[in-house]
């Protein structure tokens, strides 16, 4: 069974996202925990949450994935921005507990000139002040393309963050196929080699989710522009290998391709057709 969904707009609430996912033959989805470019969060609707939990259970949903807003940057050189990152994530993690066992993905951050090492320390420091033994949410570091001063385009950097986090069992990694390809990991011609390296450096047990995106740009371009599945430099065959790979096939896959709902529906149909049960 292929667990697949796409990014949906959270403005309609959990239950409607669940219905929307089902309408395109998805059994999970990703959504922004709050406005991606602002800091405002929607009021929690407990009734909506209860209705969604029931729907998800009845339809065997895989874990849903909350994505942190882009403005969240725990390793900005600006202290106000670091404080804001802490406050946003603290509030997000509190809210996510209303649906137990979710995953929360964030871009590790951009060090904005402070250097990768300072960045790694500040990211880990925020996580150590936020994570609790009691939380049921797993926090995922996303693999980045390496544009600007982004931290997390090298597996070693993600490992270094996890190394410094005390509650490691609350941590995971979300591998974004566009980002790793842009970062210089050849998942098209050497998927096995990349996964071996991931395992050696980070450990495959930390790999909890995959963002499925083709890339508008060539290998190692450090750009981060998503393309529809099969329409970019990765190509459809690479995705067929990724979703069927014995080390990946059990994971939840989330599309973040430039699509409306109809386009996502077609991509899910295409990928379900290529999945070997
Ligand atoms: Fe992302
Ligand atoms: Fe992504
Ligand atoms: Zn991206």
Can you offer a commentary on this structure?
By secondary structure, the chain is an alpha/beta fold. The protein has a single domain, classed as Alpha-Beta Barrel (TIM Barrel), CATH 3.20.20. The chain contains 9 helices and 10 strands. The strands form 2 sheets. It has an 8-stranded parallel beta barrel with strand order 1-2-3-4-5-6-7-10. A two-stranded antiparallel ribbon has the order 8-9. Strand 2, helix 2 and strand 3 form a beta-alpha-beta unit. The protein is globular. The termini are close together. The model has no long low-confidence stretch (mean pLDDT 97).
What is this structure's SSE topology?
Blueprint: E1 4-7, H1 14-23, E2 28-32, H2 46-58, E3 65-67, H3 79-96, E4 103-106, H4 116-130, E5 138-142, H5 155-164, E6 171-176, H6 177-183, H7 191-201, E7 207-212, E8 214-215, E9 226-227, H8 236-244, E10 253-255, H9 261-274
Parallel strand pairs: 1-2, 1-10, 2-3, 3-4, 4-5, 5-6, 6-7, 7-10
Antiparallel strand pairs: 8-9
Helix pairs in contact: 1-2, 3-4, 4-5
Concise summary:
With 277 residues, the protein is of the alpha/beta class.
């Amino acid at each position: 069974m292929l667990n697949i969904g796409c990014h949906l707009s959270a403005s309609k609430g959990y239950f409607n996202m669940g219905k929307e996912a089902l309408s395109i033959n998805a059994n999970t989805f990703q959504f922004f925990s709050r406005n991606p470019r602002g800091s405002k969060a929607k009021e929690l609707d407990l009734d909506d949450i209860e209705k969604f939990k029931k729907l998800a259970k009845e339809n065997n949903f895989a874990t849903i994935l909350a994505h942190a807003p882009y403005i969240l940057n725990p390793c900005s050189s600006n202290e106000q921005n670091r404080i804001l990152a802490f406050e946003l994530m603290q509030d997000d993690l509190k809210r996510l507990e209303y649906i137990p066992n979710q995953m929360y993905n964030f871009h590790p951050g951009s060090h904005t000139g402070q250097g990768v090492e300072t960045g790694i320390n500040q990211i880990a420091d925020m996580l150590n002040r936020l994570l609790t033994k009691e939380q049921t949410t797993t926090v995922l570091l996303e693999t980045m393309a390496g544009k600007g001063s982004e931290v997390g385009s090298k597996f070693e950097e993600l490992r270094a963050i996890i190394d410094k986090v005390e509650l490691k069992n609350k941590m995971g990694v979300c591998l974004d196929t566009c980002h790793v390809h842009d970062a210089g990991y050849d998942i098209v011609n050497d998927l096995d080699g990349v996964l071996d390296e991931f395992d050696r450096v980070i450990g495959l047990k930390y790999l909890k989710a995959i963002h499925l995106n083709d890339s508008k740009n060539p290998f190692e371009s450090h750009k981060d522009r998503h393309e529809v599945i099969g329409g970019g430099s990765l190509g459809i065959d690479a995705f067929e290998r990724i979703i069927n790979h014995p080390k990946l096939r059990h994971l939840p896959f989330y599309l973040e391709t430039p699509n409306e709902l109809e386009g996502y529906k077609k991509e899910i149909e295409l990928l379900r057709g290529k999945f070997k049960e």
